[in-house]
Structure formats: C-alpha cells, structure tokens
Amino acid sequence: MYEIGRVCVKIAGRDAGKKCLIIDTINKSHVLIDGQTRRRKCNVKHLEPLGQVLKVTKNAPRPEVIRLFKGLKIEIKETKPKKKTEKPKRLRKKKEKPVKKAPVKKAPEKKVKEVKAVKPETKPAPPKPKAEEKK
Amino acid sequence: MPRPKHRSRSLRRVQKKMPGGKTRQVYAMRKPKVHKCAKCGVELKGIPRFMPNKAKNAPRTKKRVERAYGGFICASCAREKFKQEARLG
Q1: Which of A3, A60, B47, B74 is the least crowded, having the fewest Cβ atoms under 10 Å away?
Q2: CATH assignment of the domain containing A63
Q3: Mutate which of A10, A11, A42, A74 to test chain B, going by most B C-beta atoms within 10 A?
Q4: pTM metric for this prediction
Q5: Using the beta-carbon criterion (under 8 Å), do A9 and B79 form an inter-chain contact?
C-alpha cells in the first residue's frame, strides 16, 4: 500500500493534515516523504494513504515533487532556506580570580634634611623723614 | 477575623514565608483550569496553566501544540479527524 508514488495525508506531528508523496521506502515501517510537508523519513503509522498513485522516480528531487503536486492543483509554498548559523553556546561564566600583585619593595627613601628657606634679608625700610620741625 | 473582601473563597489562601522568617497567610488568585480536549475531554498536554496576565505576554508557541487543531483537541482525536477528512475526500 505504501509504495513509491502513493499520495498520503500526514496524520501526526506538526505537518499533520498536509498531503505528501512517498518517494522512497526505507524499510517495512518507514518511508521517505515530500510534498506539502517537509522532506523527511516517516513511519507509515503516521500516514493515511489516498487513492492516487503518481509516477515518480525514486528519491525524486523537490522541484519534481512540486511539479507533480501542481498537477493535483495543490500549490506548495516555497520558503527561503535560512542561513546556517552556529548554535549559540552557553558558556559558564568563569570567575576571574583576583590577581595578587607581588608587593614591590620600595627602596627606602633617603631623608633629606629640609633646608629652611632663608628669607632674603631685606633692609629695613628707611625711616620716614621726620616732619619738618615746626618753625 | 479576615477582612470582608477576604471572607469569600474566590481567592485561595497561600501560606507564604515572609522575608522576616515568619509564615503568613496570603490571598492569591486561583489558577485557571487545565485545558481539555474539545472532543473527548482528556487533559491536553503541552499547554501550561498560565495566569491570564502571563499568558498575555507569553509567545504563541508556548501556549499551544505546533499542530493543526493544537491546543484545541488532543493528538489522538486529531489523528482520527485527519483520517476521516482524508477518507471522505
């Protein structure tokens, strides 16, 4: 029943309710599907077969599947593939150990005797001329 | 005697530890009921019991299952529904 080319409806998972086409049979219970759903491996328990069987080559590429679905009047929206980016890694915050600085021995400063600034000798202001004697 | 507004049982009573170390009775809103399948009545999985104020700001992906009819009917009922739809055409 689940041969290559069989149109099915997915009944489980996030693609449930969408139509797909069997492209390849992997083993008794698993098949490769493509169509309205994502291209993926699928358990036959998660599929409900429909009456239609299309002519498809094994492992048909995505554009061919889209073309076949157009014949069934089912349009598949193509989404732009996302750019691959690296998964953000959670890193533990490392505690930075406080770096102990080796105490630097300071060379003992030589005590320099402070020389008292000698005030320049200032000559005492010349005495004011006495007021002229009263005549 | 509790305050008149606290005498009704619409608010639930919670024992809470206060910062001082003593336990004290606090009045809190009741949690919303568990979401149930519209078809069979089974409790739905993957849908948290958000308080209304939290549900408002929570992203849509956290409030329902990522499936057609997700958050409305359970997985097994959905499977039956998809099968029927496929068979009927």
Answers
A1: A3
A2: 2.30.30.30
A3: A11
A4: 0.66
A5: no
